[in-house]
Amino acid sequence: PVLWAVMVSLAEVWRSAGVRPAAVVGHSQGEIAAAVVAGALSLEDGARVVALRSRAIAGGLAGRGGMVSLALPVEAVRERLAAWGEERISVAAVNGPSSVVVSGEPAALEELLSSCEADGVRARRVPVDYASHSAQVESIRTELLDVL
After folding, report:
1. Which is nearest to 136 in space by CA: 78, 29, 60, 81?
2. Which of 5, 63, 96, 100 is 20 to 30 A from residue 76's alpha carbon, by CA?
3. Percentage of the chain modeled with pLDDT above 90
């Protein structure tokens, strides 16, 4: 929720300086922030969505997974991940031409990190204990639909 608040607040600072976006986009919590900035959600509704989402993650996903950032193109990452299967590790975000984040089970991520180190591929753990944007997220779907 703090990251979301920073995103929404920064957009308001830009707006106060005269910056008026023609469009807003986001990924994950950024989608919720973009919806508020665009006026599709009220500030109160956006805060509610992000707080309830965070609570669901903490209660249902925390401690079950993780994320790793790789300095590779997405197709190379997908080829590398094939050894584990999408249920264990999957692409979570494509941040650029050679910047991909994956998420999944802790043991599979450790194996991936070792594999990357052996091959000289830059990879680093993202400091979270859940596998955002992975198959694991499906387990909190019903809870989120109920509370939202």
Report:
1. 60
2. 63
3. 75
- Asked if pLDDT for residue 51 goes beyond 90, the answer is yes
Q: Are 93 and 101 in contact (CB under 8 A)?
A: yes
pTM beyond 0.85, yes or no: no
Residue 100: phi and psi, rounded to 5, are -130, 140
Asked whether the predicted pLDDT for residue 45 surpasses 90, the reply is yes
| 24 contacts 34 by C-beta, under 8 angstroms | yes
* Residue 116 near residue 72, CB atoms below 8 Å: no
Residue type at position 138: E
Long-range (24+ apart) CB contacts under 8 A made by 9-13 are 11/37
Contacts of 26 (CB under 8 A, 6+ apart): 7, 32, 33, 34, 35
Burial class (CB in 10 A: 0-12, 13-18, 19+), 65: buried
